Amino acid sequence: MEEEMQRLLDEAAIKKVHIRYCRGIDRMDWELIRSCYHPDAIDDHGEYVGGIDGFIEYCKAGCPTFLSTTHMTGNQLVEVDGDTAWAEHYARAFHRVAADDSGPLRDLVVNTRYVDRFERRNGEWRIAHRVVVVDTDRVDPVNERWVPQEQLRSRRDRTDPSYAD
Questions:
Q1: Residue 161, helix vs strand vs coil
Q2: Cα angle value 112/12/52 (rounded, 5°)
Q3: CATH number for the 2-150 domain, one of 3.10.450.50, 3.40.50.300, 1.10.1040.10, 3.40.50.970?
Q4: pTM for this model (two decimals)
C-alpha cells in the first residue's frame, strides 16, 4: 500500500512540473520554466536542441512574437521507476498571431506531445530530457471577437491575475 501511495505521489509531482512548465511558457515566466528542468537537462524542440540556458534564450526570442498563448494539457502517462520516470504529456497549444504583412489576425494551433525523462534529485522531480513531438498543426483566421473588450484579458507576465495573492 505504501509503495502504491508513493507511486501516486510521484506521478502527481511529475504532472505538476509539466503544468508549471505550461504556465511558465504562457506567462513568459523564465524562472518558472527554469525550475522545471535540472540544470544539465536537454530540451529538444526541433528548432532548438540544447541546455536550459539556451532554451530560455530561444523562448525569450520567440514567445513575445505572439499576442497570447495557451497550452492545455490532455492525457498524461507517467511511469515511475525509482528515481527516474518516463512521461508523455499530450497538449494543444494556441498561439495568437497579430495581423501583419503575412496575414490577418490568426491562431496557430498545434497538437503536440512532450516526451520526457524525469529524474528525482535531492527529493525533487524535474525534467532531465525533453523531446517535443508535433502531431498536427494548423492556422485559423480570427474573423471577429466574441468576448467584449472590457473582459479581463490574460497577460504574458507576472501582472496576470493568476499571480495575485
A1: helix
A2: 55
A3: 3.10.450.50
A4: 0.90
